[in-house]
Amino acid sequence: HIDEFPMTVGKKVILRAVPYRREVGTEKWIQDEEARYVCPECGNKLFRGAGKCNKCRVKSDLD
Predict the structure, then answer these.
(1) How far is it, in rounded angstroms, from Cα 13 to Cα 17?
(2) Distance from C-alpha of 16 to C-alpha of 53, rounded to nearest angstrom
(3) What whole-number distance in Å separates Cα of residue 1 and Cα of residue 31?
(4) How far is residue 5's CA from residue 22's CA, in Å, rounded to a whole number?
(5) Are the C-beta atoms of residues 14 and 8 closer than 8 Å to each other?
(6) Which residues contact 13 (CB under 8 A, 6 or more apart)?
(7) Residue 4 CB partners (closer than 8 Å, separation 6+)
(8) 8 or 18: which leads in pLDDT
């Protein structure tokens, strides 16, 4: 069950992303997730839970 999910960031992402995916559908969800995980400073792709961009080093708090 999600309440016992061992990764805090992963749990937070699941609780945000799953209902949104159900609401908007898979294609729109994919587009929005790809747009979400982009560094606002340099445009580099980021990953879930990244604390900073691995290219320009700007802080990130997307999750």
Answers:
(1) 6
(2) 22
(3) 27
(4) 20
(5) no
(6) 48, 49, 63
(7) none
(8) 18
Q: What is the pLDDT of residues 12-25, one digit of tens each?
A: 999 999 999 999 99
- Per DSSP, the residues of 1-63 read -GGG-S-HHHHHHHHHHHHHHHHH-HHHHHHHHHHHSB-TTT--B--TT-SB-TTT--B----
Q: Residue 13, exposed/middle/buried by CB under 10 A (0-12, 13-18, 19+)?
A: middle
**Bridge partner list, 1:** none
Amino acid 51 reads G
Label residue 29 by pLDDT band (50, 70, 90).
Answer: very high
Residue written as token pair 């945000």: 16
Tokens of 1: 């069950």
